[in-house]
Amino acid sequence: MASASAPPALDAPPSTKELMAAFLARDMADGEEIFVGTNLPVVRAGALLAHLHHGPSMRVMVAHTRTNLHHTPVMEYFELLTDWRAARWAEAYFNDSEIVTYQKSRRDSVFFVGALQVDPFGNSNLIGLGTDQRRLALRGPGAIATTTNAAHVRRFYLFVNEHSPRVFVPRCDFVSTVGWAQGGADARRRLGLPGGGPRYCVTPLAVMDFEESSRRMRLHSVHPGVTVDEVRARTGFPLLVPDHVPVTPAPTAEELAILRRRVDPQGLLRR
Amino acid sequence: MTDSPRTDSPGPNAPGARSPERRSLLIEEAALDDWLRDGMCVALGGLATACHAMIAVRHMVRRGLRDLTVVGSAVGGLDVDLLVGAGCVKKVICPYVGAEALASIGPFYRAAAERGLIEVWECDEGQYYAGLQAAGQMLPFMPTRGGVGTSYPEVNPDLRLFTDPVNGETLVAVPAIEPDVALLHAAQADVYGNVQFVGTGYADRLLWRAAHRTLVQVEKVVSNEEIRRSPERTALLAHGVLRAPYGAHPFSSPGFYLEDRAHIGELVEAGRAFARRGDRDPFERYLDRYVRKPADHVAYLEAVGLRRLLALGEY
């Protein structure tokens, strides 16, 4: 919901969150179906930016509200999964047990996974930190539906708000969502997982992808003002680093205008 | 209804036999005692910050029930956290307990789980729903693919990897999750248990399918004629119906009221005081004010206050 404080000026330079949203948006094609969870303002903004910028036939699921905003000026931000006022933007409303159970309808869709920990093959952990499940040092939020969804969807993105050696670890304490398992080009096929796996891992410092033959995490681009060494130092395992690492492209003026006027008028991404 | 003279014991369905009245399934709040007992497996409907059966939940706390296995909703709310905080729970079966942006994880749930005071049946939503489907289909288990290659079979030994006999794939067998009773909150029902939602009803229908019995709190008890006006909306048949205006408070009820963020905040702060500082006083005060002292739901609503309740109805 709208916050009391006024959003920053519309002509401010792009924030890191806006940059991350624009990166995600450019990786989504018209016609795709995008599933956004709740409480993920950057992911939501990326999906809606793609939809409004170049994806008029996209179907975007924001929480349980399936929407198409092509002719709609603004979609208000809703903080809670079950906020029934979001029905104003809905073309359809989905029943939670059905969208999780019937994965065939999601095999061509795009999804996002958050994590407490991520390993070099993009396996991730939302269960908790520690060695004994009955006595976790930190109980995590749990996988919600990420285990099942990430097994089936066309591709997913790992999205983490903190880029540090606490998050990027050589080995997760527990794996709740499979990325590229133990590595190798056919790692997921060997496990019988039909979905395409993680394509990118997006953080406030950089974007990583997974090298095609080993499926090890590789630096794809660094955000403006961030150095390769910094990303290396903030990653708790050796990253594959190509000879040339580009800078994550800034949002265009058109993308920023859509973000600020139609997707995020409250300025959540600029705080 | 007129009494016809009885002849020599006709069978119950014999022509001319006296037809009994259609039985009302409406129960009074005090009769919740007949539904809920120590050690039961209790499923709680709704989702996240919406539509939890809070009259029934507060009743369990008020009665001091113990050793419950709680099947929370797929995105379990602070209904579960309240029960954990009050010491009613032995085991939690659901993929999440919290209130999203209002509390990323239930503070009592986290503290109790980390200290080993409750057992957490680890699962994701796909596995959770599969277990309920198995129960509803009277099958011993349901296979899922979600979980293959993860730690779930290690952290929850009930989730077993097996080789499927058709294609030879490795899959996860999720055993049936069979609640003794499902406690749900819906928009309306008649006294015969025809329940209608506003909105999707989340996964409440599945909880109803899986549970042995289902009790539904409703915002409004309506006439059978009202139900018949739109029978396609009837989502499930309850075994018991409880009159429950504002019965999901402090959580939202689609079409009726939004969540009461200030009240949820009070509960979350009480939980955090305990989880972070071991200070149980705020929670005891919360329980005194909202659970122990109000003898029934109306007294609870009086404790919350009319002004607060009426402010929750605006779009």
Task: Output the structural class of chain B.
Answer: alpha/beta
Q: What's the CATH first level of chain A? A: Alpha Beta
In CATH, the homologous superfamily of chain A goes by the name Glutaconate Coenzyme A-transferase
For the sheet with most strands of chain A, the description reads:
9 strands, mixed
Helix content of chain A: 10-25%
Q: What is the share of helical residues of chain B? A: 25-40%
- What is the CATH architecture annotation of chain A? 3-Layer(aba) Sandwich
| Main sheet properties of chain B | 10 strands, mixed
CA-to-CA gap between the ends of chain B? 46 Å
Mean pLDDT of chain B: 95
CATH superfamily of the largest domain in chain B: Glutaconate Coenzyme A-transferase
Shape of chain A: globular
The CATH topology of chain A comes to Glutaconate Coenzyme A-transferase
Spatial gap, N to C terminus of chain A: 15 Å
Low-confidence stretches of chain A: none
Could you spell the SSE succession of chain A in H and E letters?
HEHEEEHEEEEEHEHEEEHH
Helix tally of chain B equals 11
Count of individual beta strands of chain B: 13
Largest interface: A-B, 51 and 64 residues
Radius of gyration of chain B: 21 Å
Query: What oligomeric state best describes the polypeptide chains here?
Result: heterodimer
Molecular structure report:
The complex is a heterodimer of chains A (271) and B (315). With 271 residues, chain A is of the alpha/beta class. Helix content of chain A is 22%, strand content 17%. In chain B, helix 2 (78-85) links the parallel strand 3 (68-71) and strand 4. Chain B is α/β, with parallel strands linked by helices and 315 residues long. Chain B is globular and about 60 Å long. In chain B, the strands form two sheets. In chain B, strands 1, 2, 3, 4, 5, 9, 10, 11, 12 and 13 form a ten-stranded mixed β-sheet that branches. A three-stranded antiparallel β-sheet of chain B has the order 6-8-7, covered by helices on one side. At the A-B interface, helix 3, strand 9 and helix 4 of A face helix 3, helix 4 and helix 5 of B.
